[in-house]
Amino acid sequence: MAAETSKIDGIVDRIAQSIDGGILPVGTRLRSLRAAAVEYRASKNTIVEAYDRLVARGYIEPRHGAGFYVTALRKKPADPVTERLAEAVDIASLLREQLEQSFSVRLGDGRPPAEWVEGSVLKSHLRNIASGQRSLFEHAYESPIGFGPLRETLSRMLAERSIGAHPDQFLLTLGANHAFDLIIRQYLRKGDAVLVDSPGYYPLFAKLKLADTKIIGIRRDASGPNPEDLAQKARESGARLFFTQSLAHNPTGGSLHLGRAHEILRVAEMLDLTIVEDDAFGDLMPATAPRLAALDQLRRVIYVGTFAKILSASLRVGYVAASPDVIAHLVTMKMLTIVNSSGYVERIVHAVLSDGHYRHHLKRLTRRVQEARLAAVKMLRGTHLRTEIEEAEGYYLWVALPEGMDDIELTRTAARESIFLAPGSVFEADANRSPQRHLRLNIAYVSDPRFHDFARREIHKAAR
């Protein structure tokens, strides 16, 4: 059966290529079924199936009693939804590679190695489940707002960060990206302008493209988003929503300075902006680090967190903390789109957070990140690559390439050696980017000698 299917595909491809190439122009009569069977050394039934497929694709048409003829291909009108989907998928191609795991050296990964985050603190709870301890599964159906005890735990955790939020001010989601999706659906419509960090979080850009919004990048430096740029572009565009990541920023690793945070909130108050603050690495960062949500107390800040970067990418649990009105709207949107998130997984995360080992896990992970960062920065000095933010935090380094070096072409060259890089262009929100090109490097993989050899060789070529 497989051989026959392959034979049919081959015949269809040959005829379609002849039509596309003009060898068989419109109006040409194809060979009869018998003659084609002889030519292609196939059964008559195989030819019938091949011709049927060509008819279905619009290449040929049957004429009663006269055979099959090449027909004029009718080009379908552009589908704006399909075009937006294609553009969004193109932006998200880096994400696809992270999921498919086909490269040997993975400097472009957005996540830490599994062994960093999926240690004993998580495995012990999974073993309890496997051994039949079903206390996690007392109820099969939850309120769409999410598992109550986990929301209570989150309320206590955010209090340590000086963010006051009642458990009812939390909505549990399937990770941070699901939270962004709900916010976009609730607050943005086709053609709306929306403000984002640039460079910034590229999967968010893909979601905004898919929603057919107008993305406007706000310049970001070592201190955080530029408040003058934010004010000017908010006024000019009429945008009322700004997505930003304050701490251990993806992709630069920079963190918001306190003075800059006050300036951003002043602009937001003056221009009636709602800020969506992404704190994906919140548990790794000091509780006293500047957060917009702590300064604003969730009046005009929507705070988003996740456990994917700290516990496991497979534990799709995130949350939104916001004012009661915002949470009420988002709960309705969640209920209408997916009905509910996983109460089972939320119980697992709650059990992990409630265990005294979780804080030890965070200490070990923080130490591991610091050690990997020091080693990565040291290794980069030998390649003459320059990190843009010396005091960067989290999993990433934002590395400037030598003048004139193209990040996309370098990424393609690396791919041929099974080295996965994340080109900086993907993280830029605007088409009119700076001529300076960058790479986002995951600190866990920078010390791999294969990357070291590759970087030294390619940088040497660029310098000649």
UniProtKB/TrEMBL annotation:
Any one Gene Ontology molecular-function term assigned to this protein's record = pyridoxal phosphate binding
This protein's source sits in the domain of life called Bacteria
The HTH gntR-type domain is annotated at 5-73
Sorted keywords for this record are:
DNA-binding, Pyridoxal phosphate, Transcription, Transcription regulation
Enumerate the InterPro entries for this protein: Aminotransferase_I/II_large, HTH_trans_reg/aminotransferase, PyrdxlP-dep_Trfase, PyrdxlP-dep_Trfase_major, Tscrpt_reg_HTH_GntR, WH-like_DNA-bd_sf, WH_DNA-bd_sf
PROSITE patterns per record: HTH_GNTR
Q: Which SUPFAM superfamilies match?
A: PLP-dependent transferases, Winged helix' DNA-binding domain
**What family does this belong to?**
In the C-terminal section; belongs to the class-I pyridoxal-phosphate-dependent aminotransferase family.
> In its UniProt entry, what is this protein called?
GntR family transcriptional regulator
